[in-house]
Amino acid sequence: MVQTTPFLLVLFLALGAHSLSAKKCYLSGTWVNDLGSNMTIRAVNANGVFAGSYHTAVSATSNEIKVSPLQGAQQKGPNQKGQPTFGFTVNWSFSDSITVFTGQCFVDDDGKEVLRTMWLLRSRVENIKSDWKATR
Questions:
Q1: With contact defined as beta carbons under 8 Å apart, do 109 and 86 qualify?
Q2: Model pLDDT for residues 8-34, shown as the tens digit of each residue
């Protein structure tokens, strides 16, 4: 009698392994951070370019906070594994400053998409002698 159990197990493992590949993280959509700021990224095009809007919940200015435009790019290429690196710029509509963000989109152990970013904010200053205090 031929034993089919080992063959079926091997077949099951071979077919099931395909579904264990890394989950993809998609930038497009609405994102909210732990401070309550929210960002909307419209569709990422075939070249990785995207646009959207950012509404910050925090500001160092006394001006009324307004929704501000953002533009960015996601890394596209043959080595992309589904958790892309990206960068974008926010041109604040309510102040004389601009912020650049860089980061990566992850899928955590619970299947939730998470953005991890770092940023630099550049404020306008009156002259070159004040340059030292213009970037945070």
A1: no
A2: 334 343 444 444 456 888 999 999 999
Which run of H or E residues covers position 11? helix 5-17
CA 12 to chain centroid: 36
Quick check: is 118 in a domain? yes
Give DSSP secondary structure letters for 87-125: EEEEE-TTSSEEEEEEEEEEE-TTS-EEEEEEEEEEE--
Q: Which two tokens stand for residue 76?
A: 């596209």
> What pLDDT score does 22 carry?
60
Residues in the chain with pLDDT values less than 50: 1-2, 4-20
What values do phi and psi take at 132, rounded to 5?
-60, -30
The domain of 91 spans 29-133
68: tokens are 């501000």
Domain count, the chain: 1
105 in any annotated domain: yes
